[in-house]
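Pipeline run #58 for the internal structure catalog. This entry was flagged by the ingest filter as a single-chain record with no existing model, so it goes straight to prediction. Upstream metadata was stripped on purpose; only the residue string is passed forward. Reviewer on rotation: M.T. Logging verbosity set to normal.
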Amino acid sequence: MDTSADFYFDSLSQVELPSWSAGRVTLLGDAAHCPSPASGQGTSLALTGAYVLGRHLGTPGGLAAYEAEMRPYVEKNMAFGRKMAQDMVPGSRLAIAFRNYGMRTLRFHPRKEQVIDKVLAPMHEAADAIVI
């Protein structure tokens, strides 16, 4: 890496904010929720957030109500993103080997649909964590 002219390194990060608004200003979409790319939920969070915010705009305490309604949904999706980031970017050689072996052999697994459903269950739970 030290001698390579074209080595690129980046982190898979997620920012968590204690509040999305101050006064009459609020953050929306990735600026507020900042899900990890590993969650795959950025667009869903942005569209749901816009819809929920639209219902609360113009009402007393609207921004606080928007955040109160969205926060549990966002937190579930962020937790899923953290989990997926750990799975996608393992921290040891053994974990990398295990992940790679699992990915290479999954197509031969007799119950691959059940394995995939189990892996994706937290994403479905996070995606369904709000009723609009």
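catalog note: The chain has a mean pLDDT of 88.
catalog note: The two ends are 49 Å apart (CA to CA).
status: ready for reviewer M.T.
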